[in-house]
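Write out this protein's structure.
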Amino acid sequence: MTVFAKGSTIRRDAGLYGYERALARAELTPVAGVDEAGRGACAGPLVAGAAILPPGKRGEIPGLADSKLLTPARREQCYDKIVDRALAWAAVAIPAAECDRLGMHVANIEALRRALARLTVRPAYALTDGFTVDGLGVPTLAVWKGDRVCASIAAASIIAKVTRDRMMADLHGRWPEYDFASHKGYCTPEHDETLNAYGPCPEHRRRFINVREAEAARTSSA
């Protein structure tokens, strides 16, 4: 179900907490936001985050915004505030091999479902970023650019991004030649250069053409 609460309206100037307030007026609380990080990366896990912010001032996280608009230091600060104040939060990682097996869209949907299911507080409503996610078990709404206009989705995006960045830093320690700590597994020129020099490692996603080409080149020259 993706129909927004009957009688609820969201003003354009409602601010970052407008969706949550409208749902509260319709007595649809608590509200969970879900989002992912790493879908476009060619290496590393796909990570989904879910968060339920408390009502009132405690749920107003200072500096909260789309994770992509924050510096790493600001993301870490927001992350700490979210996990301290949230009624519930969760993060779920889908490994690279499982992303290859499922395909990125299916892996993305599965990650979001798992993150929501892991919340210790059951939401009455879920807000997702950009596209509808079926099978969440509660009424949902897909919000265009949700991580920029919706507080709970922004919180989920920060949970997902910080969790994934920390995982990529750990992977950097195992495979330092790829410099995962810098580009986080995304397809940068520097990443492609090391990928072509060393070939893919187990954390690279074989569904990405640059990974397949690098693997084929290493095999043909062996």
